[in-house]
Specification:
By secondary structure, this protein is an alpha+beta fold. Helix content is 21%, strand content 36%. The strands form 3 sheets. Strands 1, 2, 3, 8, 10 and 11 form a 6-stranded antiparallel beta sheet that branches. Strands 4-5-6-13-9 form a 5-stranded antiparallel beta sheet, with no helix packed on it. A two-stranded antiparallel sheet has the order 7-12. A hairpin with a 3-residue loop joins strand 5 and strand 6 (78-83).
Length: 183
């Protein structure tokens, strides 16, 4: 096998280890969280929807609903929230999207979120696999929307790069020795 054939085989093997970045098919958790005790306790708010993790499917078939307040649709590279009524959020209320591993947690991490919204007064907090939308003190109507697109960073998989380097080193030495013999 020639050097170029070996190189092509190694690159193809390394590429097979890299998965496409996206949430489709992943199980994520969406939760409404109280971070300030206003007389109702702290932690996850149960009984109104968003009680457990769900599998992300591109399209509306995985649409989640939080009471009569809003719907949440998470797709492979983003999400949309459509508010269904007019009201506001108490201080300390957070919508948390967690377990955002984009198919390969060792390769991809959440870097940020670009947002398109007409909701005023929110703030965002991101971690490597989570997003908190701090909603406390905001008000919304049926025409309020919140759309986000995930920005992810890829981290090269060390094992694939190491394998490639280890495999190429002897071949480069052989090629170098052949060039020296011809000189």
């Amino acid at each position: 096998m020639k050097f170029s054939g070996v190189l092509t085989s190694l690159l193809a093997a390394a590429a097979m280890n890299v998965q496409a970045a996206g949430l489709a098919g992943d199980s994520i958790d969406a939760a409404m969280i109280r971070t300030v005790d206003t007389g109702y306790g702290l932690g996850r708010i149960y009984g109104y929807g968003l009680d457990r993790p769900f599998v992300v499917l591109d399209g509306a078939s995985d649409l989640q609903k939080y009471s009569g307040t809003f719907t949440l649709d998470v797709d492979s590279h983003g999400f949309s929230i459509k508010f269904l009524s007019s009201a506001g959020w108490q201080d300390g209320i957070v919508l948390r999207l967690a377990n955002l591993d984009f198919g390969a947690p060792d390769i991809y991490a959440l870097k940020g979120v670009s947002v398109e919204t007409n909701l005023i007064g929110y703030s965002l907090s991101t971690g490597p696999d989570s997003l908190d939308i701090l909603l406390g003190g905001t008000r919304f109507t049926e025409s309020t929307y919140f759309n986000g697109t995930f920005s992810i960073s890829s981290v090269p998989e060390p094992s694939a790069l190491t394998l490639l380097a280890v495999a190429l080193a002897p071949m480069l030495m052989v090629a170098r020795s052949r060039v020296k013999k011809r000189s």
